[in-house]
Structures are given as C-alpha cells and as structure tokens.
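Ticket #4471: structure output looks truncated?

Reporter: J.K.
Steps to reproduce: submitted the chain below (106 residues) through the standard prediction queue, then opened the result file.
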Amino acid sequence: MTPSVAKVIAGLALTFFTLFTPTFAASLMSGNALSFSGSLFQDPCQLTFADSQITFICPDKGGVSTQPLSMQQITRGNVVLPGVEKVSMAYLNSAKSKAEVRVDYF
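Returned output as attached by the reporter:
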C-alpha cells in the first residue's frame, strides 16, 4: 500500500467516524451543570436590486412578505420587515455609485 492510498483511507475513516459518531456534552465533575441555549430562526430575506430600489422577500408567518424599498427609505432607517431588526446602507465611495446594504435579523 502506498503512502498516498493510506492517507486517503485514513481520511475517509476519520470523516466517517466524525459524521456518524454521536456527539454529546457532559459534566466531568459532580454537581455541575452544562446547558446550551439558542434559538431557531427563519430563513433570511431574499433581496433583489433594480432601479434604485431593493425588494425584500421575507418569510412571514408561514407565508411570504414582499416589500420594495427605495434607497432613501433604507438610508433614513425607517424600515419595518418581518424578522428583521435593522436595515442599513453605507456608501463605499464618494461618488455614491457603490453601496453596502446590511440586514440584521432578530
């Protein structure tokens, strides 16, 4: 067996054991507790850009909410979308021909 074949076999075995071995967390000292917290969240909004506006297509209570917004609305920050905490925009150059849109979800 050549060294490269042995490496491939070892890599596949490691991948198999990593994917199919149950993972758990436990405390090694008695009396201590280990807890996890987090939340489930919905899919992010899809954004489409056209003619100085951005259309947000967001999941909303089992359906879909579609909302076109102008660049002025986003710059002012008065955007209300389901599952979205904040939408902001920053220009990347002084000519204001390139911008970055940031969407912060709850």
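Triage note (M.O.): checked the attachment and the full token line is present. Helices lie at 3-20, 71-76.
Status: closed, working as intended.
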